[in-house]
Amino acid sequence: MNKLLVSVRAVTAGYNVADPVLRDVSLDIFGNDFIGVIGPNGGGKTTLIKIILRIIQPFKGEVAFPSGKITTGYLPQASQIDRNFPITVQDVVFAGIKPKNRWLPTLSKHQKEHAKELLSNAGLADYVRRPIGELSGGQLQRVLLCRALTGNPDLLILDEPSTYVDKNFENDLYEWLKKLNSRMAIVLVSHDIGTIASMVKSIACVNSTLHYHESGEITDELLAIYNCPIDLVAHGTIPHRVLGRHGNVT
Amino acid sequence: MNDLISLFDYLFFRNAVIATILTGILAAMTGTYIVSRKIVFISGGITHASFGGIGMAYYLGLNPFLGAATFSILSALGVEWISNKAKIREDSAIAILWSFGMAIGIIFVFLTPGYTPNLMSFLFGSILSVGTADLWMVAALAAVTALFMTVFYRPVVYSAFDPEFSKTMGVRVNFYRYAMSILIACSIVISIRTMGIILVLSLFTIPQSTAMLFTKEFHKIIFLSIIFGIAGSLLGLFSSYAMNIPSGASIIFGLTALYFFFKAVVVIWRFVQKQ
Predict the structure, then answer these.
(1) Which chain A residue shows the shortest CA-CA distance from B87?
(2) Is residue A76 within 8 Å of residue A144, measured between CB atoms?
(3) Per-residue burial over A148-160, b = 16 or more CB atoms within 10 Å of its CB, e = otherwise
């Protein structure tokens, strides 16, 4: 279970060679990891996961898969989804299934049943044939999570899953992820540092470069002084732990 | 009524009816893709750019539809390529393509010695002059499109809906998007024959809008668009004969009339249900 799934090695990437978003970034992802990726907007969080998912290719460095080909489940940012697109909930989830034959890409009955079962476990049994335009933000996120899970991934990557959703759904989601983590590695991109600090096993701060923290501990100081300048606003106490300084920062 | 039936004695009218039905089927398929991906404006650019090909072909003495097809396929691929490169402003690029294509067409038509009698038919269509060879061409393209979109229905829809996710699933997104661009370009050019450059896009958008009053599922929109497209076009074709008005314009009138009729039906139906 604790195999090295993905190894990002000294990657420089972005949309413009002269001004890359990520510079010389390295990250190893193991089979039972639960990594929280934090950092400011524009710091390269989404670029990092698109590199891991091979949606974009790096300018320099490489992404290796030491234990062979892996299956990934990807939950993109909700803003990337066109909610007016004429497609039903079940058809969205079916997109997460790899057809056996490339030249006749149909799905088996068994594969479809599995996808529908996931939907009913997510409380969406009544919405299977509805167009996605009729869903609330939380419901859409659940559909996208089901799509990411239908292929039984080794690695689940979520990009800001808690935007546009209510607090109840957020709690459900995090409970769900904790359970899933026993079966797969999870990389969770979030701006909501307070919540993810209480559940992730390690943290990657991405702001052009990447700092990796072996534990899921986080401090206001770390965020303010080092490479993750995010506003941390909270009422009362939020669960947080203290990290040591980055070795290469004086 | 007898008048209408006797119309079918004429070959040109039978051809016109068959052409209407075939283009209705073709436009329903590619049009649903256009409307779903919200690339109506892009398709407008492709349509108008094809006029450049028509003008050039006239000047060189070639088949104008070959010229139109070349220009529209190249511009469709060009636009798809541009939209993959996020840095360029896509809408501006399309506007340039749109007007530049028209400009090339106008210049070459002007340079061509003598009078070009068919120019009006390219702008407004000439469904009554459709020949048997044209019908075979539309039929062949409709068959190819139907086959492609049936066999590769899932990857085509998924590449349009969420290309990045599809890439992570190993779908060859670029292949499907470029293939659809080519099919769109070809179906637009072939439909220019019947509808003309200025009016052709209505055939790819109005039936879909009517269909979407009733369903939000991709394949159902295609089937309903076939029905509404053919019904509206035939309505227009017959009224064009009955009232002696240009067929392209009356077909759009027929398609739009169907849209507003069903829109009214839906609104009244909802109102009655509320009571």
Answers:
(1) A15
(2) yes
(3) bbbbebbbbbbbb
Inter-chain CB proximity B157 and A87 less than 8 Å: yes
Per domain, the residue ranges of chain A are 1-70+154-250, 83-153
The answer to whether B204 contacts chain A (CB < 8 Å) is no
Give the minimum alpha-carbon distance from A239 to chain B in angstroms, rounded to a whole number.
33
User: Which uninterrupted H or E stretch holds B239?
Assistant: helix B218-243
Domain residue spans of chain B = 2-199
Superfamily of chain region A1-70+154-250: P-loop containing nucleotide triphosphate hydrolases (3.40.50.300)
Interface residue of A46, A57, A77, A82 to substitute, partner B, most B CBs within 10 Å: A82
Count the Cβ atoms, other than its own, within 10 Å of residue A15.
12
Could you give the C-alpha distances from B110 to A62, A173, B107, B114, in angstroms and in order? 56, 66, 5, 9
> Is the Cβ–Cβ distance between B57 and B66 less than 8 Å?
yes
Q: What is the mean pLDDT of residues A25-46?
A: 89
> Measured between beta carbons, which residues in chain B are less than 8 angstroms from residue A69?
none
pLDDT digits (tens, 9 = 90+) for A56-100: 999 999 999 998 889 999 999 988 899 999 999 999 999 999 887
Query: Is it the case that residue B169 has pLDDT exceeding 70?
Result: yes
For residue A133, which residues of chain B lie inside 8 Å, CB to CB?
A: 216
In our burial notation (b when 16+ CB lie closer than 10 A, e otherwise), range A188-211 reads bbbebbebbbebbbbbbbbbbbbb
Give A181-238 pLDDT, tens digit per residue. Answer: 999 999 999 877 766 777 888 888 888 888 887 766 665 555 554 445 444 444 444 4
> pLDDT at residue A148 above 90?
yes
**Residues of A whose CB is below 8 A from B86:** 15
Is residue A131 less than 8 Å (CB to CB) from chain B? yes
pLDDT of amino acid A123: 87
- Which pLDDT band, with edges at 50, 70 and 90, does B226 fall under? very high
The CATH superfamily holding the domain B2-199 is ABC transporter involved in vitamin B12 uptake, BtuC (1.10.3470.10)
Considering only residues A3 and B214, tell me which one the structure prediction assigns the higher pLDDT: B214
Per-residue model confidence (pLDDT) at position B11: 87
Contacts of A96 in chain B (CB under 8 A): 165, 169
**Out of A76, A107, A131, whose CB is closest to B164?**
A76
B92 or A143: which carries more pLDDT confidence? A143
Average pLDDT in chain A = 83
The Cα B139–Cα B141 span in angstroms is 6
List all residues 6 or more positions away from B273 whose beta carbon is below 8 Å from its beta carbon: none
Neighbours of A164 (CB within 10 A): 15
